[in-house]
Write a structure and sequence with these properties.
The complex is a heterodimer. By secondary structure, chain A is mainly α. Chain A contains eight helices and no strands. Helices cover 65% and strands 0% of the residues of chain A. Helices cover 35% and strands 21% of the residues of chain B. Chain B has six helices and eight strands. Classes of the chains: A mainly alpha, B alpha+beta. Chains A and B meet through helix 2, helix 3, helix 4, helix 5 and helix 6 of A and helix 1, helix 2, helix 3, helix 4 and helix 5 of B.
């Protein structure tokens, strides 16, 4: 931590040594990451630039409050996340379209087999079909609840939210192998629960 | 995986459709998310946050962003050996904002007319309006006074000498006065330089009063319009501002002509 060049830059700024030069270095180093953060959230290039300026305005106005106990990147992300939340809140208040990017949107399927399909079949089901579907859905919910917590959460992130294995591993703070094992087990258990007498049962 | 019931994916999709994003106020603070990432939460808090993440694409996405901040891909880093004009321009803008005490963060473009409806602008417009209104009212008042008392335009001036009324032995004839003129009263410094009150009496009854101000130390000038009083003899009393005890009123007679 002592030899982190970023923390050294911040230390110089906090001590008033070469403030201008160090601040510019810090800005140039992290501007692409912050701007990319807002672009991925669905903001336009101009909005992303404005929001990035706002993040760094707060960074430099409050840099004396930053304690060099954790990484600067974490503090920077916290500021960016606050500004993102505020902006989404403000836009919702103004009854504009929300800008949060749904993680359920289709993404390239490069490391998993199963991506969630979207919605119901195109033709409306009959009342009888709806009743059967309602029953199956209730059974499925119950089956999900019976899974161990971490396995169930991995399932939701994968099959409902559409996250990749690597992303689930980061969010759940587990290894990618554990994610794969959880998902494999979960599908087997759910299949057995949903089709207990079938040939595909355990 | 091909040996699973075909509708598992479909059931997940239906659940996904039915699930609603938590309200914006229900999300954990970014500090809590980063504490979760850094394993700084208690086991209970950790489990509760994992449960939230399993249902919240927004927070899961933010956590992935945090990971990307901590381990940036090459595209999130400045390119080595490339002159970054965009960053240079952005830095210049930021420097200006940092040095400008009037700059407010959150100055993201709200809506096109935002600047017009800013609180400061509104205050400035209101102030201008009030000052403008006040100025106009003052100007109208001055204009009215000028129209009512066109002193400088009126000639001739009739001069009445107050001192001539003194002396009990003398009983001078009332000074003839034609209305529509400026009337000057020679006070000969017997009255203080202040606002004075002229009382016009007839048969002991007050008929008109008039406020006037000494033009200099020895002279009062007032304009008496033609409709001021009907013709006749009047007693004029000039009262100083300190009252009768300090300034005994001066009296004289005038005869208002047809």
């Amino acid at each position: 931590m002592e030899h982190d060049p970023i923390l050294e830059l911040i230390e110089q700024i906090q001590k008033g040594i070469r403030v201008e030069e160090s601040s510019e270095k810090l800005f140039r180093r992290f501007r692409p990451a912050v701007q990319s953060f807002f672009s991925r959230k669905g903001f336009t290039a101009e909005e992303s630039r404005d929001l990035t300026q706002e993040v760094f305005y707060r960074v430099f106005k409050g840099i004396h409050t930053f304690r060099r106990e954790s990484r600067f990147e974490r503090w920077l992300w916290e500021i960016a996340a606050h500004i993102y939340f505020n902006e989404v809140r403000r836009r919702r208040t103004e009854k504009r379209d929300g800008l949060e990017q749904s993680l359920d949107t289709p993404v390239e399927n490069d490391d998993g087999d199963h991506r969630p399909t979207t919605g119901f079949p195109s033709s409306d089901p009959s009342p009888e079909e709806r009743a059967i579907q309602g029953e199956r859905l209730a059974l499925f919910r119950a089956a999900l609840q019976e899974l161990p917590d971490q396995m169930r959460r991995c399932c939701l992130l994968r099959f409902e939210r559409g996250l990749k294995y690597q992303e689930i591993a980061i969010v759940m703070k587990i290894s990618i192998e554990t994610v794969k094992a959880h998902l494999h087990q979960a599908r087997k258990r759910l299949a057995a629960r949903m089709d207990p007498g079938g040939e595909n049962g355990p | 995986m091909t040996d699973e019931p075909a509708d598992l994916d479909r059931l997940f999709a239906i659940l996904s459709e039915e699930e609603r994003l938590p309200d914006l106020d229900d999300h954990p603070a970014p500090e809590k998310l980063s504490a979760y990432q850094a394993d700084e939460l208690s086991p209970e808090e950790d489990a509760a946050l994992q449960e939230h993440l399993a249902h919240c694409a927004l927070c899961a996405g933010l956590l992935l962003d945090l990971q990307r901040f901590l381990n940036p891909p090459p595209e999130d880093l400045p390119r080595e050996g490339v002159v970054d004009f965009e960053s240079a321009a952005e830095w210049r803008d930021l420097r200006v904002k940092l040095q400008d005490p009037r700059y407010r963060p959150m100055a993201v473009k709200r809506f096109p007319l935002r600047k017009i409806f800013g609180a400061r602008t509104l205050a400035a417009v209101l102030t201008l309006f009030l000052f403008g209104f006040g100025g106009m009212a003052t100007w109208i008042a001055v204009l009215k006074r000028k129209m009512a008392l066109p002193i400088t335009d009126l000639t001739p001036t009739t001069v009445l000498a107050l001192e001539s009324t003194r002396g009990p032995a003398e009983k001078p004839e009332p000074t003839p006065l034609r209305l529509g003129h400026v009337v000057a009263f020679e006070t000969q410094s017997s009255l203080p330089s202040a606002r004075l009150r002229l009382v016009f009496r007839k048969d002991g009854t007050i008929r008109r009063t008039l406020e006037a101000k000494e033009k200099d130390e020895e002279r009062i000038e007032v304009f008496l319009p033609e409709s001021f009083l009907p013709p006749g003899v009047y007693k004029v009393e000039v009262q100083g501002p300190e009252g009768r005890a300090l300034n005994p009123p001066k009296e004289f007679d005038i005869r208002i002509l047809q």
